[in-house]
TrEMBL record:
This is Retroviral polymerase SH3-like domain-containing protein. Residues 58-119 form the Retroviral polymerase SH3-like domain. It comes from Dendrobium nobile. It comes from the Eukaryota. InterPro entries: Retrotran_Ty1/copia-like (IPR039537), RNaseH-like_sf (IPR012337), SH3_retrovirus (IPR057670). SUPFAM superfamilies: Ribonuclease H-like. PANTHER family: INTEGRASE CATALYTIC DOMAIN-CONTAINING PROTEIN, TRANSPOSASE, PUTATIVE-RELATED. Residues 151-184, 205-225 are annotated as: Disordered.
Length: 225
């Protein structure tokens, strides 16, 4: 398969056609293990024909049917031979202009011409079939080598002497007195008479209920309603 692709400079994405053509040729080649008989002969009990074999990837000219061309158009276009048909007797060809594959029995071959070898984009197609993981370099450049040289700061050691400080020691800051509000309103916070807030607690309820005396008559009880 590799020989078929490289001989005709066929791009690697046509490897399925090359694999089928290689299997087609191997099935018609005699072998010592089968008493110099080909697999085709062992299967059909007859000698295969070799007159229809052509060079893979060569130039060919399939005959166009009258329904697909007009009177002024040529009867055949330049195509590339890509193998044989598995269903009927015919050849598989590729139109490089339209990228269309056709099967034809009436076809003329030019086995000395290989269109893929004359196309400059064949090298590009070959490189596109290579996996991208194989194109990554194994060793990446060291980013530190391309960085600009930054001078290192000089470390400060204990041996360096500094002149004694002549500034007086800082005195401890005294806490500033809290400023009182300057409004003229007299509040309980200014006079110091603060009342505790009696919320709805159990202690407050017990004290309030303890101060109330139990009425002894209806007249005393009616005063509370």
């Amino acid at each position: 398969m590799r020989t078929l692709l490289q001989t005709a400079s066929v791009p690697y994405h046509h490897w399925p056609e090359a694999a089928l053509t290689a299997a087609y040729l191997i099935n018609r080649m005699p072998s010592k293990t089968t008493s110099h008989k080909s697999p085709f002969q062992l299967l059909f009990n007859k000698t295969p024909s070799y007159s229809h074999l052509r060079v893979f990837g060569c130039e060919c000219f399939p005959l166009l049917p009258p329904s697909s061309r007009h009177k002024l158009q040529s009867k055949a276009n330049s195509n590339i031979f890509l193998g044989y048909s598995d269903t009927y007797k015919g050849y598989k060809s590729l139109d490089p202009l339209t990228n269309k594959v056709t099967f034809s029995r009436h076809i003329t071959f030019n086995e000395n011409s290989f269109p893929f070898s004359n196309q400059p984009h064949s090298i590009l197609l070959n490189s596109q079939s290579i996996p991208s993981s194989l194109l990554i370099p194994t060793s990446l450049p060291n980013p530190l080598s391309t960085a600009e040289h930054v001078p290192c700061p000089i470390p400060v050691t204990n041996s360096m002497s500094f002149p004694p400080s002549t500034s007086p020691p800082m005195s401890q800051q005294e806490p500033q007195p809290s400023t009182q509000p300057r409004h003229s309103m007299v509040t309980r916070s200014k006079t110091g008479h603060l009342k505790p807030i009696n919320r709805l607690t159990l202690l407050h309820q017990e004290n309030s209920t303890a101060t109330q005396s139990t009425p002894t008559s209806y007249t005393e009880a009616a005063k509370h309603f």
